[in-house]
Amino acid sequence: MLLKIAIISVFWFIFFFSSLHGLSQIISLIGVYHSPNTEKFPQKLWKIVKCNGALSLPIIFAINLLIQTSLSNPDEKAGFFLSLPITALFLMVIRILSNPSRTLKPSCCQHYSDKADKLNVIATHKERVLSFVYAFVISSVTILLLLFGYYHLMGMPFDRLEMPQLTNIEIIKCFVAYSFTLGLATLLGELVLKVWPPMIQNNIKN
Fold first, then answer.
1. pLDDT for 187 beyond 90
2. CB 20 within 8 A of CB 130
3. What is the pTM of this model?
């Protein structure tokens, strides 16, 4: 028992630490918008595609976890298929809201006349949006690690989350469809930000 607890503790520490650190770095990049003078549109698009791709798996898992733990007898396939477009749209919305433009700036900005004060309000809004994403993803990862540790300690198979049994053709179709959906959602998000530029932009070249 003590040996199992020690192994689980080491495993939990390593993966929890790396998850907290790694996901924080990726999510922070969603809130960074470089001005056109320092970063071209194709380069910007490619960076966000990579960020969204990296965040897709934990968000898909988080949505599936939420569905399976909230409903008594959920349909695994339906929940999984639903999580794919929701994840793509989720990432697009977060990208837009975490980079407020003059059109989408927080309404409380109207109570400040000084530009510096307005930018402080916007910076707080950005942090709030990104913190929501971070908490949403990390909470699901934490629950996964806790469940894994408990099942391993009790010597039980880790089958708490029943992922859908897909055929090879279904897996390929899902991958192609999701890749297209994620790419399209990312492109639309960047086009929205290009038409309505964020009020806070990074003018430092990478």
1. yes
2. no
3. 0.82
